[in-house]
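User: Hi! I'm working on a homework problem where we have to compare a predicted structure to a textbook description. Could you give me the structure for the chain below?
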Amino acid sequence: MLRMHSASVAPFSGYERRIFKTLADNPSQLDEQATEVLRYAFALTRMEHFPADHGSVDLFDLISPYRHWFLGELTRIFGDVSRNFVDWRALQKLIPNLRAQVDAARSHLLDHNINRFSEDQFEQDLCNRKVVIVLGGGGGAGYAHMGVFPLLSGLGINPSLIVGSSMGALLGLFRAASLDDQAMAVAQELPAGTEFNRVFGAYSFNSQFCVPGAVELKIRGIGTHIFNKMLRRDVPRMNELPIPMRIVSTGLRTGIDLAVSDVEADIKRNNRMPRRAQTVRRLATGMRILSQLVANPRMLEEVVFGRDEGLEDFDALDAVGFSCAVPGVLHYDIFRKGSLSEIRLKELFNRRRIARLTDGGVVSNVASRVAWQSVHAGEIGSPNALILAFDAFAPVAGPDLNTLFLFAQRAVHGNVVEQRPYCDYLVSYRSTPSPARLLLTQERMIEAASRSYRQMKPLRKYLKLATRPVPRWQMISPSISP
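Assistant: Happy to help. Predicted structure tokens:
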């Protein structure tokens, strides 16, 4: 059971981000040893458990007094965590006392667990921070995520976990499919805008697990081709990916006031409209259903492929399909009778009383909480992680028709704000392709990646500092450590 709540973690994350983002640009604000003491001190606050040889060791109670003291000192010096002001003189004065507190807490923790793990094992975990990335949904706007991968690769950072919703799930899968960053090359194998019929087809009015949508998403054939041709392998299951991944879909609980027959009736009416009017009518249907769903959060739940019971070995392409299925607009389903995916979903629906699946963005458009839960459940082998979240669907009217989707952006923005405390850094892209542009030419895809890369480039110094190994305690404070 997870014992450390985000309310107790978020303030440390906020102070740490403020201090080290400034230090990355102006390292002379603190001397080098003080900087490393602070980095070690913040890393220690994250050590709520330790993955020892014989199972996870709970350190929460042992570390709580230190965390309480440190948070009190940070609050005294800086005030509210949302303020940007850093009192460097007060922070420098804190270092001697902080060094003593870290030394005492660390010694107490190691003495108490002397038969469970060694000091060397503990230092190895604490001093090396892992990186988790969270990629949000947003249709074609999600192509902005393509700038994240070269940014991190250029810093020598390989994610330890990727969490994706909707378009973030698709592009995240391309990154998770290889330890080497081949995401752009793989994404460029997607059909271009002129090849609409390769990706989308008319809804067949045959739905088993998914909320109906006007357009059938034919991701299975395309994805299989990409994995076979580019990556020279079969479509992987979630537990076979070189980089672990969690893909989020929205489960609609049994009893929700959304009848499949009503949605299909809307689709039929829209299909009778003149072709030019169909797109607008389909979007209007999607917005109405979205509004209905977000107004009933108790009837929604996260379904996490790769993590939830029975979904650990789920087919990765099927997971992406359900995560991308926009209610009333895009439909994905499984018609492979007797397949493992079909069996798993039937079991899931019965066990958790789920009626349908739909786009992951409805319940968690930027699923930072899933990332945080995975880290603190021991799924990446360490609680010492930097969680970076990327929002492609923030309610900002961009230059490429994003105003058409402002209602949907505002509708899902609430769950993004709610989950903000679970990540260490959130990037909201300022300029993205239109959400409607689900297929891009290679030139437009490169342009989208370049825009987001340029926006994030100033973060390089901060990310380099935040992920740089922390020196071991004996190197930082040899006069105190035995």
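For your comparison, note the following. The radius of gyration is 24 Å. The chain has 20 helices and twelve strands. Good luck with the assignment!
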